[in-house]
Task: inverse folding
């Protein structure tokens, strides 16, 4: 397999980081790496690192890029087509893997990818994981691709909706990183697992944790941890370990950790994230729960309690950052409703009426089915997600988040999005009184036009 | 009709037919309300046929399956019987079943729900039905006293479609002091016949479980309905007086539970029939804590009593009226101090909060004019801040209930936003309120007529309570702001309350 690594000048550092990590781990792959960039000067330093990782390294300089277009999508498409033509004309019969090295890779990523490709038995194997043309293509993709499209309408093992196929004329990128509603996101199919096996989904942000960095401990639940991130940021950052605890409401098992990990690691103030690290801890962020036994103060937020716990002064700025917001075309509203923390007075029927064709649902399939059933909302589109970072991307790309007191609401609050909360009357511990945040205690909730 | 039997059928005409046949065979003096719950397999035809044959059968047709709660609640509305019976369509009843169900309810005056022997009778710690002592009656076959459940509601609105609603009903009735009873027969019941056909059922069960569990968690842990309730509110006198409205509502919902109040001003609760004890520190065994501390402070732009109500886990709106109970001696003393009916009380302050005090010279001018108009003026509060025109100066001379007795005899109280405002409203004395940093719509109760004047905040560099952010308490404004309220405005308000004919 040929590993095609395209990058623009400003992406050189991240490619170097990813390859540097592979090199540091002593990886050596008997494969060809094709470095593709419009900047000759950028290729040289990457080439030297890549030579340590791949047995063969070649480079392809894309010329006339700026003359083609100044738009990133058009430029990417142009690069893709150039690469496809180049591989086709070099008479190589090997499939090639287009991978924008913007995230760290797992140790055995090459083997897993090749094995998955062999197993799938198809010419094309794509994952939409980062909205880039990441995927394995046959050597003759440049010539075959449009014909295949016309022949079957579904050349990919991964099903892509018709509207997306129509946009694939230029082949790979779609408008402004905008997903269309019928496009199936990478969850729940075999190639998702492949993508996950090789790709951590975490941006490269070289941070060297120090023992001098304070060590924070938390045991969940998910939303509580997101609120705690605001406190960690206010304290100047540090290391975080997520552990199991004897306290109620904590379910920090390995699956939960994996679910939280990508989003937490993306935060620049988290120097290190570990699971089940041993103490001593500088800040045990669970401690506030012990205080709650003496009486929960109605309306006080989890964030307030946590901030008190570690004496943090949290400002009203966003405390979460993500790599790429995902806009779902025609769906500016993100809905999330867990089966807990509900308020029967909240006007979900009006929400369904108002945003009938404008909303996507984030959460478990069971929650989605319940939402559709309870509020007669068959038009609601479910966006399955792997981990909280994917949710955060979709929330960040939305215009309005409506949900109950779940971890996704915490994410929306952490991003300071426009939110409407279905407030759980018995324990309203996520009240954030700010512009753009509506706390829905009853049926009197203003639903904005979008 | 004596009995109203409600049967819902989303499908399965054959099974439903068996059920209805048994009811028709073994029941007398009854009406049968059949709900066709969006069926597509012949139930509709069955019901139409039965309705044509039996004049005591009424049929309700739903276009889709609305579950268990709503159709039965609708049937209850339609029902005319003294006893309302819910019956699953996959059950077959034995002879004399209605008499068996009715018997224990006649025998026990407090009895309100009965059901057959067997089946789930106990709730486990996870709010699941189980076998054991009688905790609840299953909704598969349940007789209820129609007038009682019509008054208190059949099923809770927070429970959707089906499941947990029967347990919730039983617990609500028990909380009100009613009792449950088992009838002396066993029901033939194909458990879960209908629910097995719907994929969404596990999600509904889980959702309803999550809705029910926190509401009954305290009972499930303690297994007693008469656990003590401790209401905690440490704040200022006015804040504590406001809790009396919530305590009244709590008592109505929990008539079996003794209510204790932990407060720094226990005298507010002297004579209050809803409260068994008020003290600075309460020590009772395993109480349910209702913590009202900081409840409204954490809820900006919300009426204080709404915030209290929510913090007390009362889901329906409560009556916004406070209560004080001065004793007979206090009332007699008040009658001696202000013997006729021409008295107006003026509370001149001071308040501990900046931005609430109206200037003393304004009070002086106001009192002078009112005295000229023939009213008697009594000054109340902790200290006289320089008002010279009055008939009685009781500043610093009254306790809370002494003052309550005084205000109960006044025509009107003119006051800043401070404790006497709430005392006056608790005693149903009309109020003219002078507001600065706070907003009256979140403070004033429905206890008495009131007109509130609000200072013009716009001219001052001040973020008042009206813009308060939870957790941030630095919202003081200068007292000068209150001077934007003129004496003429106050006099106008007084006239509007006391002489409405001239308005």
Result:
């Amino acid at each position: 397999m040929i590993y095609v690594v395209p990058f623009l000048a400003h992406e050189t550092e991240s490619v170097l980081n990813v390859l540097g990590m592979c090199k540091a781990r002593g990886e050596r792959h008997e494969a060809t790496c094709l470095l593709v960039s419009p900047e000759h000067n950028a290729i040289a330093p990457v080439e030297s690192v890549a030579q340590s990782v791949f047995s063969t390294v070649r480079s392809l300089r894309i010329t006339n890029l700026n003359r083609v277009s100044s738009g990133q999508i058009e430029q990417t498409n142009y690069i893709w087509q150039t690469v496809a033509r180049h591989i086709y004309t070099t008479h190589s019969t090997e499939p090639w893997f287009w991978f924008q090295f913007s995230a760290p890779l797992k140790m055995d990523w090459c083997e897993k990818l090749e094995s998955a490709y062999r197993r799938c038995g198809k010419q094309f194997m794509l994952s939409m994981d980062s909205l880039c043309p990441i995927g394995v293509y046959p050597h003759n993709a440049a010539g075959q691709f449009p014909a295949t499209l016309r022949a079957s309408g579904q050349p990919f093992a991964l099903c892509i909706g018709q509207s997306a196929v129509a946009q694939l004329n230029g082949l790979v990128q779609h408008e402004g990183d905008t997903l269309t509603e019928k496009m199936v996101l990478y969850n729940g199919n075999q190639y998702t697992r492949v993508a996950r096996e090789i790709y951590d989904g975490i941006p490269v942000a070289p941070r060297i944790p120090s023992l001098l960095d304070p060590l924070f401990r938390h045991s969940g639940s998910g939303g509580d941890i997101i609120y705690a991130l605001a406190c960690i940021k206010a304290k100047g950052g540090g290391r975080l370990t997520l552990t199991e605890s004897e306290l109620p409401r904590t379910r920090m098992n390995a699956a939960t950790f994996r679910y939280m990990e990508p989003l937490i690691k993306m935060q620049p103030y988290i120097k290190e994230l570990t699971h089940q690290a041993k103490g001593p801890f500088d800040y045990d962020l669970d401690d506030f729960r012990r205080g709650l036994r003496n009486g929960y103060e109605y309306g006080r937020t989890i964030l307030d309690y946590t901030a008190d716990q570690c004496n943090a002064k949290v400002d009203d700025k966003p405390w979460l950052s993500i790599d790429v917001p995902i806009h779902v075309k025609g769906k500016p509203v993100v809905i999330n409703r867990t089966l807990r923390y509900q308020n029967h007075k909240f006007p979900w029927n009006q929400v369904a009426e108002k945003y009938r064709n404008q909303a996507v649902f984030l959460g478990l399939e069971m929650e989605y089915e319940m939402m559709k059933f309870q509020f007669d909302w068959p038009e609601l589109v479910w966006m399955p997600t792997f981990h909280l970072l994917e949710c955060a991307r979709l929330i960040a790309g939305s215009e309005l988040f409506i949900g109950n007191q779940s971890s996704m609401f915490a994410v929306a609050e952490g991003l300071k999005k426009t939110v409407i909360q279905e407030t759980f009357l018995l324990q309203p511990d996520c009240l954030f009184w700010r512009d753009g945040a509506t706390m829905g205690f009853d049926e009197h909730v203003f639903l904005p036009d979008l | 009709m004596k009995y109203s039997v409600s049967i819902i059928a989303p499908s399965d005409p054959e099974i439903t037919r068996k059920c209805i046949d048994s009811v028709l065979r073994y029941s007398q003096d009854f009406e049968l309300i059949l709900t066709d719950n969006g069926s597509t397999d012949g139930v509709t035809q069955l019901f139409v046929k039965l309705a044509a044959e039996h004049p005591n059968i009424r049929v309700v047709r739903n276009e889709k399956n609305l579950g268990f709660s709503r159709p039965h609640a609708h049937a209850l509305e339609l029902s005319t019987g003294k006893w309302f019976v819910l019956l699953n369509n996959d059950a077959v009843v034995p002879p004399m079943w209605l008499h068996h169900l009715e018997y224990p309810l006649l025998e026990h005056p407090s009895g309100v729900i009965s059901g057959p022997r067997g089946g789930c009778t106990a709730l486990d710690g996870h709010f699941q039905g189980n076998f054991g002592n009688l905790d609840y009656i299953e909704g598969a076959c349940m007789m209820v006293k129609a007038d009682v459940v019509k008054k208190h509601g059949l099923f809770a609105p927070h429970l959707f479609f089906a499941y947990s609603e029967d347990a919730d009903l039983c617990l609500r009735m028990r909380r009100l002091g009613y009792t449950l009873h088992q009838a002396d027969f066993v029901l033939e019941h194909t458990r879960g016949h209908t629910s097995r056909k719907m994929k969404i059922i596990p999600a509904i069960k889980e959702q309803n479980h999550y809705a029910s569990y926190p509401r009954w968690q305290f009972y499930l842990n303690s297994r007693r309905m008469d656990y003590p309730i401790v209401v905690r509110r440490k704040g200022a006198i006015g804040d504590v007086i406001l809790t009396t409205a919530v305590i009244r509502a709590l008592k109505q919902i929990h008539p079996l539970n003794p209510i204790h109040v932990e407060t720094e001003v226990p005298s507010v609760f002297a004579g209050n029939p809803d409260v068994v004890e008020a003290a600075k520190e309460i020590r009772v065994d395993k109480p349910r804590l209702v913590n009202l501390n900081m409840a409204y402070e954490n809820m900006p732009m919300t009426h204080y009593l709404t915030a209290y109500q929510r913090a007390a886990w009362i889901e329906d709106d409560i009556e916004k009226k406070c209560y004080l109970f001065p004793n007979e001696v206090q009332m007699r003393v008040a009658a001696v101090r202000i013997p006729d009916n021409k008295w107006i009380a003026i509370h001149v302050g001071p308040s501990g909060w900046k931005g609430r005090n109206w200037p003393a010279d304004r009070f002086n001018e106001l009192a002078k004019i009112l005295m000229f108009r023939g009213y008697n003026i009594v000054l109340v509060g902790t200290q006289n801040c320089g008002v010279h025109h009055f008939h009685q100066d009781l500043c610093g001379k009254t306790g809370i209930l002494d003052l309550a007795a005084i205000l109960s005899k006044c025509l009107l109280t003119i006051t800043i936003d401070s404790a006497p405002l709430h005392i006056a409203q608790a005693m149903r004395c009309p109020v003219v309120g002078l507001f600065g940093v706070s907003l009256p719509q979140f403070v004033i109760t429905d206890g008495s007529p009131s007109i509130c004047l609000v200072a013009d905040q716009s001219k001052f560099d001040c973020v008042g309570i009206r813009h308060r952010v939870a957790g941030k308490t630095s919202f003081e404004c200068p007292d000068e702001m209150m001077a934007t309220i003129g004496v003429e405005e106050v006099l106008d308000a007084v006239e509007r309350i006391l002489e409405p004919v001239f308005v």
Observations:
- The radius of gyration of chain A is 23 Å.
- The longest helix of chain A spans residues 72-89.
- The CA atoms of residues 33 and 69 of chain A lie 27 Å apart.
